[in-house]
Amino acid sequence: MKKQLLLLVNIILPTLLFAQASGVDSIQLKREIANKSFVSLYKENADLAYTSPGGEIGAPTKYVINGRLTTTYMLFGSYKSPLAFSIIPDFTVRVRNEFSAAVRTPSYRLGGALYARLNQNPNSYKYAELAFTHHSNGQDQDARNPDGSINTFNGNFNANYLMFSYRFGHLLKSAIGETKYYTVNHRVGFQSHKLFRYEPVLDDGFGFTRLLYNFSFRRYDEIERKSLMQNNRKSEKETWRLNAELSYAINNIPGKNIANIQKRLNAEINFNYSFPFMHNVFLMAAVGYYGEDNYNIYFQDKYVYMRFGLSSGFLRNRGKE
User: Fold this and answer.
1) Domain containing 75 — which CATH number?
2) I want to staple 63 with a disulfide (CB 3.0 to 4.6 A). Which of 6, 17, 34, 55 is the partner?
3) Number of domains composing the chain
């Protein structure tokens, strides 16, 4: 009887221990896969860079060409951690339609973002993002002219802000046999400048505190299906991206009540399309409204605009089995 009992223990106990170890390994594997997949999502959801001949058509100032150069330096994005951290430079210049083709006051933004993964499914993702950004224009002259107006020629502009965002999205199911698929992506956010030093002239009517919402609808296709290089590998790319961006200032603005949409609202819709032969770049068309131009010291300008050109970012363009 003792021998039979000992035999059962020797058989059952290792089996239980192996099953437990396998379960732990499986959970850890899912976490590692999720951590790695979400790092790609953080970069894909970042703002696009663009180059636009003519710039914002409809702006009070005429431009030759405008450009926004931004990227994401992912300093920490380990498969071992649900947290990630990046440095984000974001530089915008507008070349004025003048004899000297002057830039005058470029917008320099430099900051960092901390990401926290909230679930494990990249096809139905949820994550939080906390970012700090310094924004200035590289000028050091008085921000106010002697007549009391804003000095947009070489006036100093500086501001710093925190931005908290909750991002979520999901993959839309495709019909059986379809090679294309779509994703829906959302961002809800809150932006605040009042926690840090800023140029005092901004008290004249700057949107220090803003509510944010972004929507992005994207299509992905299988490409290069006839290539002899495929070897049973599929190449997929992001074919187009439709973005909608809204922000609304909710802080006290002198002479403007909370319902003053003309001053408080910034909105843009842009469509970005990439032909099969293009890599990591879109043709871009945008239409929008600035209740407050976000180009540094020009914050008192408001206008409807259009923008055309090329855009780029961390796009999904890769091979897979």
Assistant:
1) 2.40.230.10
2) 55
3) 1
Least confident of 160-164, 197-201, 265-269: 197-201
Q: In DSSP terms, which residues pair with 211 in a beta bridge?
A: 190, 248
Q: Which pair of structure tokens corresponds to residue 129? A: 């993002």
Task: Judge contact between 299 and 292, C-beta under 8 A.
Answer: yes
pLDDT band at 5 (very low <50, low <70, confident <90, very high): low
What mean pLDDT do residues 219-239 have? 72
Q: How far is CA 284 from CA 58, 273, 275, 281, in A?
A: 17, 7, 12, 9
Q: Which domain holds residue 52?
A: 2-320
For residue 234, give Cα distances in angstroms to 183, 224, 230, 255. Answer: 19, 8, 7, 58
Burial of 313 (0-12, 13-18, 19+ CB in 10 A): buried
Enumerate residues 6+ apart whose C-beta is below 8 A from 26.
none
Q: Which residue type occupies 29?
A: L
State the chain's maximal CA–CA distance in angstroms: 104
Alpha-carbon gap, residue 75 to 98, rounded angstroms: 40
The strand pairing partners of 61, in sequence order, are none
Which has the closest alpha carbon to 214: 180, 248, 253? 248
Q: What would the pLDDT profile of 240-275 be if each residue is shown by its tens digit? A: 999 999 999 999 999 999 999 999 999 999 999 999
* Between residues 310 and 142, the one the model is more confident about: 310
